[in-house]
Amino acid sequence: MKFISWNIDSLNAALTSDSDRAALSRQVLSTIAGEDPDVIAIQETKLSAAGPNKKQDAALKGFFPGYQVEWVSSQPPARKGYAGTMVLFREGMEAKTTAPRIGAPDTMDYEGRILTVDFGDYYFVNVYTPNAGSELKRLADRQIWDKLYADYLASLDSKKPVIACGDFNCAYEEIDLAHPENNHFSAGFTDEEREGFSNLLSRGFVDTFRLLHGDLPSVYSWWAQRIRTSKINNSGWRIDYFLVSDRIKERVTRSEMLDSGPRQDHTPLVLEIR
Questions:
Q1: 167 labelled catalytic
Q2: Taking the model in full, what pTM does it have?
Q3: Strand partners for 162
Q4: Which one is catalytic: 122, 128, 172, 241?
Q5: Is 213 helix (H, G, I), strand (E, B) or coil?
Q6: Fewest CB atoms within 10 Å of the CB: 17, 94, 151, 220?
């Protein structure tokens, strides 16, 4: 089985815009299609509460014919066109999809941040974790989210194995970003967020990239758009992950980043399990 995860930062922009960035995004979609994955997880779709419109749906099917599409979007009282997640899987796969609410604070439960697919033998969970925000304004709520999300994954894991992926908005260790010395009080690398991620792993999950690659340095999944040379200089962060239940970790054969070319922001991840 092959799985791919990508924070697309606006599905509509990637599919329908004429901008240079959209063209780069479509190149990434072509790269993903070329991998011929069984399941694709997309974060930060930024779709309306009604989901993909006809134009978006047609464009998406142009890249991924033969896939069933499931989604959850931001709904009131959350902001319109905010966050959102999507899962695509091959038609014919037996699946039951849910968009759970975990009791998170503020409007987090209404932002379309979790999409879970029960594939029978295992759960597949796509997550777009809330960012702590500028000046860490949302850090306290983020800490509550982290605990509740860990509880949620553990509850699934008590029934059958879990594959969890997405943008976790946390660089776990100093090796997971280019300049840790300058970022201990930055969103995504605070002690509180790293502690939350550590707690999640301790509940019975493993970071598949580190499982296979050990302390391999300078491999990241995100480069800041606002810094034009961030990707050229590989000044990035690894904040996107594939996690699996400890009891199936021996089945992981591949976990790595896909090349997204010159496009800055997130790059896709790929996971293969035998």
A1: yes
A2: 0.97
A3: 123
A4: 128
A5: helix
A6: 94
